[in-house]
Amino acid sequence: MTTHHRIALIPGDGIGREVTPAARRVLDAVGARHGIRFAYQEFDYSCARYRELGAMMPADGLDRLREHDAIFLGAVGEPGVPDHVSLWGLLIPIRRGFRQYVNLRPIKVLEGVPSPVRGAEPGAVDLVVVRENVEGEYSEIGGRLHRGCPEELAVQEAVFTRAGVTRVLEHAFRLAATRRGRLTSATKSNGIVHTLPFWDELVAETAPKHPGVTWDQEHIDALCAKLVLDPGRFDVIVGSNLFGDILSDLAAAVAGGIGLAPSANLNPERDFPSMFEPVHGSAPDIAGRGIANPIGAIWTAALLLDHLGHPEAAATVESALAELLAGTGIRTPDLGGTATTEEFTTALLEFLP
Ligand code: NAI
Ligand code: MG
Fold it and tell me: What number does the ligand 1 atom closest to the CA of 83 have?
């Protein structure tokens, strides 16, 4: 039996346009082996579109995406277009409009990609950062006053709701229960006296519903240090929007580089499509040369497969990546090799069972 999925592709800008075709080749190859057919529709939502037409996406942009089973996004961002335009004009409307309140960022140290962190051995570091993705510190509430005057001020409100925090905590505890059963909550309830004590209370309320999971909490500053000194001790780390954002780049660096890291913006209820994107940006410094590392995008394709109900197919992508890296010296230049994006992807296809 063949399963059909409709995928919205948003290649975006810079190397987003180079790694998206790589992910698509892998999806098609895996699909052919597992009886999964993908129908793609490509969208030009990007900074290039913003320069031409004045908006990252059309006014009905979300409606057009909505009829798809999943969205794959390469990366957006272009020198000359302010980053807040690309973020608030595209990524944040999709994440919020489609209630993608879980941002999932798995991190593994793989054999053949040395970690810059001493003692972070392959196999020993395998963690997932679960970031709250629609509220918290990234709110539109606030403003500027007395612009240009000596008394100029800026106020930005952080918004933590019982419903919003609890649902992401529930997701993180459930995920931990399917893994090694350990959860760490990122907090800063010593310094931030309203929102983060509230967060801590909700963690303590949620935990008893998941008796199979042992949990602890760490202040974000100490947690950053421990993630570098002893990354192997973590299983699932859950944090607010800002803490999760910072932790996931740090954890990606521990795993050997931003070019490898995948992410998923999930609407767990499946009322809306979820969005899958590598963690990296559009990398204008190397864009157009065909040398971007496609691992982050390809691993992201595995997350997409898993979400659409094909965990075995997803696992073959992950093991093909692991085998290629452990067994060959084929690498893109960011990992010290000479392979192009296309050569790396072609080599990877050979490792698919
Ligand atoms: P970046 O991730 O684009 O690049 C940081 C560094 O890592 C660069 O030296 C780049 O060459 C390298 N790099 C990143 N991905 C790579 C890959 N796959 N292969 C090889 N090298 C890779 O972050 P940066 O420079 O801070 O931002 C560039 C633009 O991307 C900005 O406009 C920013 O707003 C945007 N951005 C977009 C994101 C998204 O679409 N979700 C996420 C992060 C940044
Ligand atoms: Mg980030």
Answer: 34
List the one residue out of 219, 238, 300 whose CA is nearest residue 10. Answer: 300
Percent with pLDDT over 70 in the chain = 100
Residue in the block written with tokens 């510190």: 137
For residue 266, the cross-strand partners are 102
Q: Show the tokens assigned to 39.
A: 């129908």
Ligand 1: distance of its center to the CA of 78 in Å? 10
Measured CA angle at 259 (ends 332, 177), to 5 deg: 130
Give every CB contact of residue 290 below 8 A, 6+ residues apart in sequence: 18, 340, 341, 342
pLDDT tens for each residue of 264-306: 999 999 999 999 999 999 999 999 999 999 999 999 999 999 9
- Residues 334 and 293: their CA atoms lie apart, in Å, by 7
Predicted TM-score (pTM) of this structure: 0.94
Q: Match 């859950």 to its residue by tokens.
A: 238
Specify the amino acid at residue 108.
Answer: K
Give yes or no for residue 349 having a pLDDT over 80. yes
Q: What is the DSSP letter of 290?
A: S
Q: Tell me the domains of the chain and their CATH numbers.
A: 1-100+267-353 (3.40.718.10), 102-260 (3.40.718.10)
DSSP track, 244-259: HHHHHHHHHHHTT-GG
Distance from the first to the final alpha carbon of the chain: 19
Containing H/E element for 196? helix 195-206
Atom of ligand 1 nearest to the CA of 260: 18
Could you tell which of 282, 291, 345 is best to mutate to test the pocket of ligand 1, judged by most ligand atoms within 8 Å of the CB? 282
Predicted confidence at residue 196, as pLDDT, reads: 98
Give the span between the Cα atoms of 190 and 193, in whole angstroms: 7
Q: To the nearest 10°, the Cα dihedral for 93, 95, 97, 101?
A: -150
249 C-alpha vs ligand 2 centroid, how far in Å?
6
- Residue 190 carries which DSSP code? T
